[in-house]
């Protein structure tokens, strides 16, 4: 994410306000963005800014994203061709900064005049075991029409990732800014039941720490995503099992059984029980309840080094018995969506 003062730095590139010509002080002296040649081909993003009178200073795309930079580059090119008229602040950004341009630093292409971008920003992405990748910007683009709402923070307390034992992450929590411009993204099912925080755990933590009652959020349903995103984030697509559609992670020949006279789902971990999680499995011809895990697993699931250390310490590559707690602890990342721990990761720790 982006540190608080980055947006302030970007918005700081503007000319002093001028008085209007009539002297009333109330005129809109800054002209809107407008095309001088109506047939000039432009991107959908620039067209939105023109039709809605949005200055480049208030670029609607996420700061540092590909589309954010492309918008400046496109406006700069059209300004050089004299086919666009820019408002005062937009023109100042185009003529006095290099936003939208790139340079080479230590052999790597980097954006110019865009200070102190957080390392994860545009690189935030998810990948499945087949190498398919989807970025945060992809998610933002496909959910741009999902309405924003003020979501009760108390509902996030049980699912937000906790980094109290990680000073670097705590520092990030202190640095992030909560604003309507960057709502957190919450994954929910089609009925609206919360699953996990897709993007914005640090902002959610900050809201909880500051005792804010609500936080700007978008509730993302599976139906808001395209097929690729569903596959990567939710473990889809699904396949037919004896004529019935079932998630790929479930056993092929059994989905439900009885445990102590109660119908239970087989092979689907859940929160609660004597430990952090539990799951029902088939042990021969009987159903067995396996309790496993702790809060520590939840805290470390996104920390690659911690996951690797856990896998080595617990010999996860040797854990093959589904009736043991060790197997399920080692394979917890594969069931992250069902447990509200984030997107699926097809790997053991």
Percent of residues in helices comes to: 25-40%
Characterize the biggest β-sheet.
Answer: 4 strands, mixed
Q: How many helical stretches? A: 11
Beta-strand content bin: 15-25%
Q: Can you tell me about this structure?
A:
27% of the residues lie in helices and 20% in strands. The protein is an alpha+beta fold and 349 residues long. The chain folds into 3 domains: 4-111, no CATH class; 124-232, Alpha-Beta Complex (Conserved hypothetical protein from pyrococcus furiosus pfu- 392566-001, ParB domain), CATH 3.90.1530; 244-339, no CATH class. The strands form 7 sheets. The chain has a 4-stranded mixed beta sheet, covered by helices on one side. It has a 3-stranded antiparallel beta sheet with strand order 15-16-17. Strands 1-2 form a two-stranded antiparallel ribbon. A hairpin with a 5-residue loop joins strand 5 (125-127) and strand 6 (133-135). Helix 6 packs across helix 7 (201-209). The longest helix has 15 residues, at 66-80. It is elongated and about 75 Å long.
């Amino acid at each position: 994410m982006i540190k608080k003062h980055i947006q302030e730095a970007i918005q700081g590139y503007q000319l002093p306000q001028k008085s209007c010509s009539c002297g009333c002080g109330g005129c809109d002296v800054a002209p809107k963005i407008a095309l001088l040649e109506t047939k000039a081909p432009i991107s959908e993003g620039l067209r939105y800014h023109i039709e809605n009178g949005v200055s480049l200073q208030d670029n609607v795309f996420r700061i540092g994203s590909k589309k954010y930079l492309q918008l400046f580059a496109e406006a700069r090119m059209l300004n050089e061709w004299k086919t666009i008229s820019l408002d005062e602040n937009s023109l100042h950004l185009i003529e006095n900064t290099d936003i939208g341009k790139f340079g080479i630093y230590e052999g790597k292409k980097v954006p110019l005049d865009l200070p102190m971008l957080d390392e994860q920003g545009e690189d935030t992405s998810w990948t499945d075991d087949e190498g398919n990748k989807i970025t945060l910007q992809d998610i933002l683009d496909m959910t741009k029409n999902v309405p924003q709402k003020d979501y009760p923070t108390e509902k996030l307390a049980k699912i937000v990732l906790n980094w109290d034992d990680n000073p670097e992450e705590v520092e990030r929590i202190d640095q992030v800014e909560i604003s309507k411009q960057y709502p957190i993204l919450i994954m929910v099912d089609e009925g609206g039941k919360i699953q996990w925080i897709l993007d914005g755990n640090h902002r959610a933590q900050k809201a909880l720490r500051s005792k804010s009652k609500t936080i700007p959020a978008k509730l993302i349903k599976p139906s808001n995503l395209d097929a690729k995103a569903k596959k990567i984030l939710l473990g889809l697509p699904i396949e037919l099992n004896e004529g019935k559609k079932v998630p790929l992670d479930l056993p092929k020949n059994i989905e439900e059984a009885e445990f102590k006279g109660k119908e239970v789902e087989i092979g689907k971990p859940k929160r609660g029980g004597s430990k952090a999680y539990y799951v029902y499995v088939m042990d021969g011809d009987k159903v067995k309840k396996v309790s496993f895990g702790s809060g520590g697993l939840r805290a470390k699931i996104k920390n690659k080094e911690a996951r690797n250390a856990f896998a080595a310490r617990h010999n996860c590559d040797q854990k093959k018995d589904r009736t043991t707690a060790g197997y399920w602890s080692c394979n917890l990342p594969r069931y992250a969506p069902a447990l509200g721990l984030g997107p699926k990761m097809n790997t053991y720790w």
